[in-house]
Structure prediction request, 298 residues.
Amino acid sequence: MSDIIESLTLFSKRFNVDLANCFPPLDGAENRVIEAMKYSVMNGGKRLRPYLVCECAKMYGVPYETAFPAAASLEMLHSYSLIHDDLPSMDNDDLRRGKPTCHKQFDEATAILAGDGLLTYAFDYLSTALVIRPEIRLTLIQLLADAAGAFGGMVSGQTLDLYAASDGNPQHDEAIISRLETMKTGRLLRYACEAGAVLGQAPQNERQTIISYSRKIGQAFQIADDILDKEGDPKLVGKTLHKDDSQNKFTFVSYYGVEKARNLAQNLIAEAIAEIQSLPHPTDNLQALAQYIINRSF
Ligand code: GRG
Prediction:
């Protein structure tokens, strides 16, 4: 466990410096939105998605510098989703990563604009990344849009999260939870891994193995998140807890209970590790990251 924390910490140090450099200040009052974007994106995230992009790409000899634009644009997009998720009209949260949410630190209009700015800039940054070959860039842009969007992507997942309701049939509920989590949390994690495979021009069968690994860690990640919401230490988690219960959210934990959900997550991680291990590349960090995902305290 300590090795993966060390590896993530080392990666984050380098990544954070490069990411901060993506946000040059503008003159004038419009700089306010850039400050809000930078505040949110540099606000202490774990950087799991960029780490996955770079680790999956590294298996195919792709250097950090080439993977960086895909990793950075994904983190920008992830930060947009957190800013908008925290808004009063969505999850209505005052704390994110232990600090005031963007709309609390600035104001609601600025937070909406900062989210819009990050979403737009993510695609701008990726599409102009000359270190990535044009056809690979285009594939990444398309995959990212698909993962984030309203046709089976994160926006669809967030819509289900806000509006899905039980019809009293437990089997329907289970199917809704699975679809909701796959789209809301799973699609960006899948993109992170798949982007690495695309950058590395991985053979099709290996790309499928990487996608399967990403699906499993994605589901386990969400279960771990739900368990942290129920049982986590608020000082470590850095956001308001017990919201799933108070807002009657559809989650694996509300459906299965903590113990069954925990077992499910452990089984998914064991399967994910076995799959990634089958690749003919060094996968120690990806195996350890999978384990970290369910053992983390924030
Ligand atoms: C607003 C379109 C839109 C989507 C929001 C991201 C999201 C969808 C909702 C956030 C609520 C939530 C708890 C989602 C579960 C998983 C998740 C994305 C957690 C946050 O990711 P971490 O733990 O965050 O990687 P850090 O802060 O480390 O980057």
The chain has one domain: 2-295.
